[in-house]
Amino acid sequence: MQFPRLYLVRQNFPDRSIKDIPAEVTKQLSGSGFASHLKPGSSVAIGVGSRGITNIATIVRAAVDFWKSQGMKPFLFPAMGSHGAATAQGQADVLAHYGIKEDTMGCPVISDLEVVSLGSTSEGIEAFMDKKAYEADGVMLVGRVKWHTDFAGGIESGLFKMMAIGLGKFAGAQRYHTYAYKMGLENVIRNVGRQVLSSGKILGGLAILEDANHNTGQLTAVGVENMEQKEEGLLALVKSWMGHVPVPELDILILDEIGKNISGAGMDTKVANRSVNGVYNPWPNTPQFERIFIRDLSSLSYGNAVGFGMADVIHDRLLEKIDWNPTRINSLTASSPAAIKIPLHFSTDRECLERMMPTVGKLDIKDVTFGWIRNTLNLTPVVLSENLLPQIQANPMLEIVGDAFPMEFDSNGDLLSPLAAEVAHAH
């Protein structure tokens, strides 16, 4: 079967990166007034999530140093629901992998799944908080504000979601997702978040915004008095920075990898335009893809392959790397069993593509269009098929790197990814 030639294409996103991250953390927290609510010597629980956030260890260490400079006793805890296979050690291991451990942070890291009840919302949803955090004199959250993979709303992923599902640990995450099945996740996040705020334990949060290059683009201290409204504004801002595959539609989108370190759903559904419940192209104003092919599972996902069910075809190597225990726990906790249905799978990249090409409604195989990304976080450079050249040339944000080249396979029939070399070069 004849494959089209390809172009390596760079997307020139604006660079919003902060040059001195520790200094910006200190500036934000110093001006926040958070410390004025505590006496010197007070304990401060700092909640940290489990996503692959750029510079997270640097940001968290700077927050720890700030609280120490105020005469406080900070400690860190995982603000996660079912991640780390819903075990205390597993969640500590997730943080440790990101460099967040006692010897690098200069303070204890305490991981415990025990929770305390904070009473119920007006809808009857019981709210919970990590017991060790609740026993501290105050709680601060460090989290990234971004779009959520499962729904669209005024508040999606961020400090409010961390207060609800993260602070509630596994006990809360299960319960909240169950309510969300009928009420909607945004409604649950807002109501549980307000209940957590009413406990009086939250000092505030440090919101992280990343630009389309996934640099740390903004750090903002958010107080409890206007956290909900402030987060709405931050989400609207970061959505305006979002990157996409730079063509309106493709027949086949190839992803080199998915993983929990890339997105909570394994791949960002608002980049791949898929729903965790199996719906094709549900998001408006987003490129449309007829077929999605996933080649591998990131080693940093530790076997959790949640989201692979959104693909149309996967390589056998991905299937062989799945650790079904955390994958099932994560999927069932989030009430999204469709996200782990096993797609079609074959033993070579060539067969995966050859099986998909005749299914996209093109009578002439030469007209099949391809896009290829490392993962849904890394959207520059991308690889686009030569039959998309007029669209590439018409977009001023795109830059073709080098000449067109053939789709290359090794002796086993597996693709030689031009993006792997680009990622290695970038680092």
Provide tags for this entry.
disordered C terminus; 5-stranded mixed sheet; 32% helix; 15 helices; Rossmann fold; 15 strands; 427 residues; alpha/beta; 8-stranded mixed sheet; 2 domains
Description:
With 427 residues, this protein is an alpha/beta fold. The protein has 2 domains: 6-13 and 243-426, no CATH class; 21-240, LarA, N-terminal domain (Rossmann fold, 3-Layer(aba) Sandwich), CATH 3.40.50.11440. It contains 15 helices and 15 strands. It has helices spanning 21-30, 56-69, 88-97, 102-105, 131-134, 159-166, 169-183, 185-197, 227-240, 269-272, 316-321, 324-333, 349-356, 389-394, 418-426, and strands spanning 6-11, 43-48, 73-78, 115-120, 126-130, 138-144, 202-210, 216-223, 249-255, 288-294, 313-315, 344-346, 370-373, 382-385, 398-405. The protein has an 8-stranded mixed sheet. Strands 3-2-6-7-8 form a 5-stranded mixed sheet, sandwiched between helices. Helix 10 links the parallel strand 9 (249-255) and strand 10 (288-294). The longest helix has 15 residues, at 169-183. The model is unreliable at 423-427 (pLDDT under 50).
What is the gist of this entry?
By secondary structure, the chain is of the alpha/beta class. It is built from 15 helices and 15 strands.
Mean pLDDT: 93
* Relevant CATH superfamily of the largest domain: LarA, N-terminal domain
The main sheet comes to:
8 strands, mixed
- List the uncertain runs: 423-427
CATH topology of the largest domain: Rossmann fold
- What is the percentage of strand-forming residues? 15-25%
Number of strands: 15
CA radius of gyration is 22 Å
Structural class designation: alpha/beta
- What is the second-level CATH architecture of the largest domain? 3-Layer(aba) Sandwich
Number of domains: 2
Helix and strand succession?
Answer: EHEHEHHEEHEHHHEEHEHEEHHEHEEHEH
Helix content: 25-40%
CATH structural class of the largest domain: Alpha Beta
User: Kindly, what is the distance between the CA atoms of the first and last residues, rounded to a whole number of angstroms?
Assistant: 35 Å
What strand order characterises the main sheet? 12-11-10-9-13-14-1-15
Molecular shape:
globular
**Number of helices, counting only DSSP H or I runs of 4 residues or more:** 15
